[in-house]
Amino acid sequence: VGHVAIGLPPTLARVLTAPIVRDFRQRFPHATVSIVEGLSATIQEWVQVGRVDVGLVYNPTPAPAIELAPLLEEHLCLIGPRSGRREASTVPMRELPRYPLIMPARPNAIRTLVEARLAGLGLRPQVTLEVDAIGAIVDLVAEGLGYAILSRRALPEGADSGGLVARPIVRPPLKSSLAIAVARSSVRAINA
């Protein structure tokens, strides 16, 4: 019984909402669940203030009021239109400033990560459009209006074989980490 609110970033909400709701209903038929979509920084705030009970967050910033449990790391890719000429299968990080990027506005977790890693090399990304909707970013890339830095998971099914290609960022690899975030007060209450 009861209610559970779960915060998911947009790339995961697309693929996880239906399975989470389906599994939750089977396991807890007398309880309710709500799924809230937001950027990782926003989800962390929601966990802290109690708007959501649990959140999945990319590249979380440690906070005293939040318990973080790492789940996985995934490679980030430069996503762009498939060109007619032969391209390398990977993109060195140092080359990222050459590409006009379509990225979410700060404090998006991937944008913050990209800017920090490039700054460590004395470089800055060339952000030409700020769009906070992952689906819209992918559509704009497909229209040829720029490139995106996302996980391969952000692409719709079959996109690699169609008009878009995802090339992993290497030397050094650019990886995004995913963690479960819950309020420390909730963890203490469960363990008590």
Question: What does this entry look like structurally?
Answer:
The protein is α/β, with parallel strands linked by helices and 192 residues long. The protein contains 5 helices and 10 strands, in the order βαβαββββαβαβββα. The longest helix is centred in the N-terminal third of the chain and has 18 residues. The chain is globular and about 55 Å long.
Q: Which spans of ≥5 residues are poorly predicted at pLDDT below 50?
A: none
The largest sheet, given as strand count, sense and whether it forms a barrel, is: 8 strands, mixed
Calculate the mean pLDDT score and round it: 89
What is the global morphology?
A: globular
The total count of strands amounts to 10
**Structural class category:** alpha/beta
Give the CA-CA distance, first to last residue: 20 Å
